[in-house]
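Hi F.,

I've been meaning to write this up properly since the lab meeting, where we talked about keeping a consistent format for the predictions we share between groups. The idea is simple: the sequence comes first, exactly as it goes in, then the structure tokens exactly as they come out, then a line or two of notes. No screenshots and no reformatting. I'm using this chain as the first example so we have something concrete to point to.
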Amino acid sequence: VLDCQWLQQLHSYGLLRGAFRPADQICVLRALNRQRGMLLRMQARHIQHMQKALVQMNIQLANVISDVVGETGQKILRAIVAGERNPHVLAGMRNVRIKASEEDIVQSLRGNWRDEHVFSLKQALELFDEYGKKVAECDELMEQQMIMLHQHDGVPGKARKQSGRNKPKFDLRTRLYQMCGVDLTRIDGIDVGTAMTVLAEVGADMSKFPTVKHFAAWLGLCPGTKISGGKVLGSKTQKCANKTAQALRQAASCLKNSQSALGAYYRRMCAKMDKPKAITAAAHKLARLIYTMITKGEEYVDQGQAYYEERYRQRVEINLRRKAETLGLRLVPMEAA
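Output, unedited:
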């Protein structure tokens, strides 16, 4: 029997459920967001081409400036393409926030200035600008599409400081809030880019997922159920090329130094298991929070690292008392010294 015939027979009996597909307007937003991500990846390749051209000219600008496409880096690169070769003039373009001194920048700008490498730098800059224009066109269409998906009035509260030069030029955080009615960026580790990926891939309508467990299982963040004869053969999470799950895993990895309840949970998971599993566990918790916020319309309030650690200590103490009782023992607290 062919697989297609077997699937057709099962489907005729109503034993198969259809795959998840968001609404048509969300599909448009998803396509635009994916197109924007592809353009950013291609633009990043030309940043590498700029850095390679500089290295070939023996210009070690990356040693004194962390971002060659920042304000100072762009001024220097465009001046080099325009014909400026004096390192003192180029170093005078530094922004006051650059930690490196002007003399250090001068030393890093002493190169051979070969014409073929300057030509490569020029083309990389032109392609970088061209992709920037295409990204701006995507941003314009995305904003128009998000205006059509406006369902909630109001604006979110004060935003936390978040960096990133690849953010859209429009107020993406407000548009996301008007789509789902909650501010997903209040969750630690979730920035506007991650929130945009979640809403563009899934949408604000979670009715197709009856419970939060269905949503986490669709993301591929739940333990597997490989069972035969009542025996668990494996509980690894299934491999799933889900863009939402990938974004949540990336957000979870940013909780390493977070002084929040989620940060404390992630560090406890890292101490308990290997790092990839800890990232998956933290991403699972982020997915549950997002589902709860969107379905119930409640804002997320972080209780803090101290609150989480105290609750964890209480759970450990309760478990120890229960084990002691089964052994006929009793825990006695130590007197304060």
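Notes:
The CA atoms of residues 16 and 219 lie 19 Å apart.
The radius of gyration is 26 Å.

If this format works for you, I'll send the rest the same way.

G.
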